[in-house]
Amino acid sequence: MAHFSSVTNSGAGPLKPAALTANHDPPLPQHLNIVALETFFTPLPPLIIPKPYTYTLTEYSRTSAAQVAERIKDANIVITTVVPIRANTLSAANAPNLRLIAAMASGTDSIDLAACSARGIRVLNSPNCNSVAVAEHVVSLYLATRRSLVPVMRALSADEWATTGFIMTRAYTADAPPRSCRDETVGIIGYGGVGQAAARLLGALGMNVIVSDRRGAPPGSDGNGNNGRVPFETVLQQATVLVLCCPLVPETRNLIGAAEFARMQPDAIVINVSRGGIVNEEALVTALRERRIGGAGVDVFDYEPASVQSSPVVAAMVEGNLNLIATGHTAWVSASTRANYQRTLQENVERFIRGTVDADRMKA
């Protein structure tokens, strides 16, 4: 269901005449058609648009990939989160007036950036809005897997404690009691906002934190990678907790597979809060079944929404018997994330209309 609202004056400060066409070639129309495709994830804030611009806002709670083309065909500005926006929907024939895609998300892998670039459509994302929430989710997944909470709960619900007299060994990883935080070495792969926030939290728990360099990067003069980071292969070997929070790009697709699991320590915990496609799901399940690693916490999947049919990880969760916990791309969910996305959306839309996006980035 769509919700329509028409605004003739937003109350924001007026643009100076010279700014009306700043960074806009051709200039923006004075009345803007704004379409929000997925307000289900994060409700829109009251948009404040600079004078003398006015706008009509159309909001959709959910939009499927098949509905995108029809819904954005008259839009000047599109607000989105995760629905795929592909080249055919971005063509001049389908969306001739589209000038800005504002993503209420940190990732832009659902948007065809090449098609946007070819047409001069600006794409603005919302970086670091969910860093604290995702980092806290990393800690949650770590504790759940290191303490083997799921296997222990399964044993308890199956009356194993009552029938055997003890279930403490269900909390073991690699046939040994779980490590304490101060005995862990956490390897961070992807050191953006989430990676840095996770490093702070895990370091505060007493862990030794090492940050991975890019795979294949030449070592520095000190034997470490560039900027003092640890070579990727060394991180695989040394980390007892491996945290993935890097973007999905060609260089990171299938970054962690069977060969990488074989290099890890037998009680290593793998936490993936980045994107599906970075960790090979079949290889992860195999590594868990063959006890090459100690456990895994997963929040992202190759195909989303994930199901037993589409994801080996979800199927393995249903089967049980593995030290595996999976959450359905919920790491970002928090009140602070919502507030940050709403604030950043307002800033992105206003800066785009004022033509100050690049100037603001240069000041930052």
Summarize the structure.
It comes from Sporothrix curviconia. Residues 1-22 are annotated as: Disordered. By secondary structure, the chain is α/β, with parallel strands linked by helices.
What is the secondary structure topology, with strand pairs?
Elements: E1 2-7, E2 31-36, E3 54-60, H1 68-72, E4 77-80, H2 87-90, E5 100-103, H3 113-119, E6 122-124, H4 131-146, H5 149-157, H6 160-164, E7 185-189, H7 193-204, E8 208-211, H8 232-238, E9 241-244, H9 258-263, E10 269-272, H10 281-289, E11 295-298, H11 312-319, E12 324-326, H12 335-354, H13 357-363
Parallel strand pairs: 2-3, 2-4, 4-5, 5-6, 7-8, 7-9, 9-10, 10-11, 11-12
Antiparallel strand pairs: 1-3
Organism: Sporothrix curviconia
Biased composition (Polar residues): 1-11
Family: Belongs to the D-isomer specific 2-hydroxyacid dehydrogenase family.
